[in-house]
Amino acid sequence: MLWRLCLLSLTLFSLMSVSAVTPALAMVLDVDLSKPDVRLNVSFKGAELLLFGAKDTAGDVVVVVRGPQQNQSVRLREKIAGVWVSTDEVVFGNAPAFYALASSRPIYEILPAAVMESERIGTDHLDLLIKEKPDGASQQTIQEFTDGLVRIMVKKDLYTNEARVIELIGKQLFRTDLWFPANVSVGEYTVNTYLVADGVIRSKKTSHIQVHKVGIEARIYNFAHEQALIYGILAVIIAVISGWTANAIFKKRA
Amino acid sequence: MQIYLPIAEISVNIFLILGMGGGVGFLSGLFGVGGGFLMTPLLIFIGIPPAVAVATEANQIVASSISGVLAHWKRGNVDFKMGLMLLIGGVIGSTLGVWLFTYLKTLGQIDLVIQLSYVVFLGIIGGLMLIESLRAMLRSKTSRPKRKHHNFLHALPFKMRFRRSKLYVSALLPIGIGLLVGVLSAIMGVGGGFVMVPAMIYLLGMPTAVVVGTSLFQIIFVTANVTVLQSVNNFSVDVVLAVLLLVGAVIGAQFGAKAGAKLKGEELRILLAIMVLGVCVKIALDLTLTPDDIYVLGNAGGH
Question: Could you give the ipTM of this predicted complex?
Answer without folding.
Answer: 0.80
